[in-house]
Amino acid sequence: MAAQPEHVDVLIVGAGLSGIGAACRLRTESPGRSFTILEARDAIGGTWDLFRYPGVRSDSDMFTLSYRFRPWTGKKSIADGWSIKNYIEETAREYRVADSIRYHHRVVAAEWSSEDARWTVTAERTDTGETVVLTCSWLSVCAGYYRYDEGFRPHFEGEESFRGQLIHPQHWPEDLDYAGKRVVVIGSGATAVTLVPSLADQAEHVTMLQRTPSYIVSLPGEDPLANKLRGKLSPKATYRAVRAKNLVLSTLMYQFSRRRPQAMKALLRKGQVAALPPGFDVDTHFAPPYDPWDQRLCLVPDGDLFKALSSHKADIVTGRIDRFTETGVRLESGEELPADIVVTATGLQVQPVGGMTLAVDGEKVDLAGRVSYKGMMLSGVPNMDMVFGYTNASWTLKADLINRYVCRLLNHMAAEGYVSATPVAPPEGASDPFVPLTSGYIQRSLAQLPKQASRAPWRVYQNYFLDRRIMGRGRLDDEGMTFQRAGERLPVAA
């Protein structure tokens, strides 16, 4: 007789910022529940372990990117990737969840059985090729939203003839020597604006080549309020005060951008004109054709990008690529940018639920045919949450709300004798995209993502204060959620 697969109450996929946060919340808010974390790579940290390019840092302030239950005490508000990775590792040790991680386990499939009221999860060992099967009562997918093994990189005409090095930031070579080299960085997003000033310190010259500009805003690398309060208040009180201030300011900034985009454009332009040399063509290089927050704003700490451009160690070119040559990149304008190294900071490939396949009672789940419930669960899919953070604020803010909500839900189910919780779609249907951004990486992935509706609880609100009320104190048995006892079928309208 074959041995039964190992069973845990909760199986967490991913040991990054979201997954470690989920485990810590289970430890403190749903104690006694067994859990295991499966991580495809060989280390804690997720994004912050993967990316190793020069200058890699947070694109949100650490007082809101860090965990609410474990205050950030570092001096930098905009922290480097290594510091964030260390913070996640320390949190895992402090909350005794590090020993629950199984590395080299890539989850490839999960199938729900209503008869057994559990998921059967299949993982592949990335180090041995072995297949591992576990079962769980609840599946928490904290694998982020993009492919870890491959970034997005379009093919460029003539790139095979380029005699220099062609690099994607997601796979940065540890031994890359760019000192004294001419570097072209293709892109205008968060990675590009981070790389350019970092490379400019040692490179002969760095050119940021963009097809379309991005909105860029400078914030202090160290928070002035935090520096003022340190020594006067306890670390926890300082953290809470700065976190509250940043939450309010970021929310107001987003709301102002959406309601008065022209005024926001003028405000951003004013800051850029002040930070750049007289006569700099701000309107060509820093004026996107879309409104602020149609795509994410790019953050630069202490104006480092503007300082690099002002020093003439770096420049910015806006135009379209015609082809690569042996010695660089030729634009459609005819201009050629000489390069020893070309960095293709061209974005990510979205990969929802970690790339695994899902099935419910033998029927494959098509994510695009499902409706999001509170931005965290899927219609017709029982006992599974999918952690997807904010696009207009720190990822962890929404991730932590989801993780706490899952604990509330699990505790409620245990108290009431339910074995499953299954969201249902709204009766009027849903057609709005899950992520309301026009960024290329989002637009390329819409066919892989669920939909959202125009009202709660099927609306994905990009508003922490509203979500905190809905998810922290809102009803668990609202019109979008159904509960089942042992032996009961899933709702037909799911």
Domain module tally: 2
CATH class of the largest domain: Alpha Beta
Number of strands: 25
Structural class: alpha/beta
Can you name the CATH architecture of the largest domain? 3-Layer(bba) Sandwich
Q: Provide a count of the helices.
A: 13
Radius of gyration: 24 Å
Anisotropy-based shape? globular
Contiguous uncertain segments of 5+ residues: none
Q: Biggest β-sheet, characterized?
A: 9 strands, mixed
What is the share of helical residues?
A: 25-40%
First-last Cα distance? 36 Å
Q: Could you please say which CATH topology of the largest domain applies here?
A: FAD/NAD(P)-binding domain
Q: Superfamily at the CATH H level of the largest domain?
A: FAD/NAD(P)-binding domain
Q: What percentage of the residues does DSSP assign to strands (E)?
A: 15-25%
Q: What do the pLDDT scores average to?
A: 95
